[in-house]
Amino acid sequence: xxxxxxxxxxxxxxxxxxxxxxxxxxxxxxxxxxxxxxxxxxxxxxxxxxxxxxxxxxxxxxxxxxxxxxxxxxxxxxxxxxxxxxxxxxxxxxxxxxxxxxxxxxxxxxxxxxxxxxxxxxxxxxxxxxxxxxxxxxxxxxxxxxxxxxxxxxxxxxxxxxxxxxxxxxxxxxxxxxxxxxxxxxxxxxxxxxxxxxxxxxxxxxxxxxxxxxxxxxxxxxxxxxxxxxxxxxxxxxxxxxxxxxxxxxxxxxxxxxxxxxxxxxxxxxxxxxxxxxxxxxxxxxxxxxxxxxxxxxxxxxxxxxxxxxxxxxxxxxxxxxxxxxxxxxxxxxxxxxxxxxxxxxxxxxxxxxxxxxxxxxxxxxxxxxxxxxxxxxxxxxxxxxxxxxxxxxxxxxxxxxxxxxxxxxxxxxxxxxxxxxxxxxxxxxxxxxxxxxxxxxxxxxxxxxxxxxxxxxxxxxxxxxxxxxxxxxxxxxxxxxxxxxxxxxxxxxxxxxxxxxxxxxxxxxxxxxxxxxxxxxxxxxxxxxxxxxxxxxxxxxxxxxxxxxxxxxxxxxxxxxxxxxxxxxxxxxxxxxxxxxx
Length: 583
Description:
about 575 residues; alpha/beta; Beta-Lactamase; Alpha-Beta Plaits; five-stranded antiparallel beta sheet; 22 helices; 21 strands
């Protein structure tokens, strides 16, 4: 074959090869177009040598752009990434460049043409030149906005309280654990607060659980407004909340926040058409002073909160080790109190109440006492709250009624008459729907007339058990039982409840009586006496210990005097002697 024919043959082969390459390229382009058009993802190709970016038509449409509007430069694309996510995107890319990783993946938000952001999952493959330098990255964007939304919704269900929007206990403890580690590393303090809404039950009792739930939402919103951005609010359950205060330079910061919370609840909250008010009791524990674990801090803040409630509510208390002793004592009391009735350890004393003018006995108040077989006398202030908390006050209360009414019958049979018996009623007893029926049954069994009995109710009880209390008091008053309010002037909404229930006697609290020389105390005493007489109620002053107190109260028109000035609480046989002498 001559040279010309050889060249001609070679040209034919080259043309065939070019045609095959052209066909292959065409098929490749068609394949790419089919993949691009058939995929729900947006494809992209970034050439690092000139910083230009290719964006597929599908990706353009997803972002709301026409093809001609699409920026071709990577720097322009960076501007569309959410400001919060830019650092994450660039850090991931630089890590891939540095480590010569073949694959890149990152989730972030990118802005649409209309201005709102969507979440995307960006995946890409990196190409490097012979020197190991990145020259190209190609990949895809997938819209994961709905997936993110569902994930966030699921997380809210798992980690957030659906009523108040605050995080739940598990998530709170996780954050607390992380904060403790940070505080340990930085040498800082942190604080845990445990909060309880004082007298919240009254809202549910008076207005129903729907209003109660709306009230809780308002309370949570107000609490959030009182804390810092770095702090965490948690609804522990019911009407109890916890707050994490990280990165404290001093305990004073926690005290300042606690005061702010308490002050913020001095005004009413509008829920639907109702004006509702409440106060907050707060317990405070500090890391590392009171504990080095989240569980320990929360428990101690809880203990301190109960101490705040015991001391009058609407205040805050720091945990201290003395409270542990009180808790241990309470636990021991709880276990021993169950057997106290059966062991014959409980007994009653009676304190005479004296007519201020005639100095004759007009009442005897039955007061329960406990002589423990090993510990001796245990104060009612220590065991009555435990009895109420464990519902042991129900059988104990019935024991008091039975024994007090029986004793009254004996005194009447001895010829001592002209006085009534006063018996204290616990909030737990008054919450029982059948309480009035129980009292009536015991009166009938002991042969005592209802008019001989006075039921004494602490003013704060009126706040805590409105629903059943109203029914019980109405039934008892219809039978002739007298109703007395104890500790008057120390609770809330006093006039409202006097108007609602009606009372026969009002007791001036001993805190006002203890210093009758104080001008403010004098004014309070005078107003209470005036108020009581205006509604035909007798006024009793308790805690009277001096002649000066007695004389002042008598001059102001106080009707009945109770206190050590005339007599301490006496055993039944001592009362008999006192009645003989008084007669």
